[in-house]
Specification:
297 residues, 6 strands
Amino acid sequence: MNELEYLRQIDLRSLPQLKPMLLDDLHSKVWQNLHLEIGLGPTLFMLSPSYNILNPGPDETVADFVQKNEALLDYLKELIIKSLAVYSALIDVNSYFIEQNNYLVLARLRERNSGGRIYEIKFYTHSPAELLLRYRDKIYIGRDFIDLFNFRRKYFGTKELILSLAEQYDRLLDRAQERIKKPTEYKSYFQEIQESINELKSEALEIIQSLPPYIDFNKISEEELIDINAQYRTINHYLIELHDEVGEFENLLRFCQELDFVRYVTKYKKDITNLISYFNIKINGYLTQRIHQAKLK
């Protein structure tokens, strides 16, 4: 965990200017209450919305970084929120828990072997009153990816999110060996989920490669738009099948009291749920709206 060192090397002047965007009240309030978690060596430091070090305690290196890079941190938070507003539905679908926690959201950064350019971000929400006393009780609400140098995402960012599901499942298998009492008893479930992931990855990537990376609504025909919408819907159907497989496995694990492992399966299912919602709300939902508007002209 050396995200702080990577960020320290970023020249704010080299980053592209973010376009103005009107945000709804939900995303605006999350922005105001966004806490960052940034790694330095083996330690994860939590920064308040005003960049005070909340956990684990004072650190000269982190304090010096914050003092010299407050504008960069402002940019980072703006990029995170605007990316969530456009390329994710996780804030929308978890709004109940977020609002119950006074819009407090934790954003934990993990650099993605990109020289400090691309970050995976895990998001949690927590009661402000118990944030430090009961930190482990935080609620996982999803993950996203940001590229500091490129806001726009090819194929609505779906390729990266689908590949992430495959990577996460590999890590889930590793955890199963450590945390399940008798992993071989669940062999058929692991195989079925793996087959579903392989099918999703293969079919989705093939579909994505046939689609335009970006859609120019001023140039695309109505017929092409309808076809693109249908293709993205097909990808979503594979996600729904995977969600059902994982949900069935999750229920079995709870019934068998595999509590040390099932929480990881629940987090994995949350990521699938978020991606399905993203398709429904911000990809197929938006494309369908454009189709209807075109037909009304």
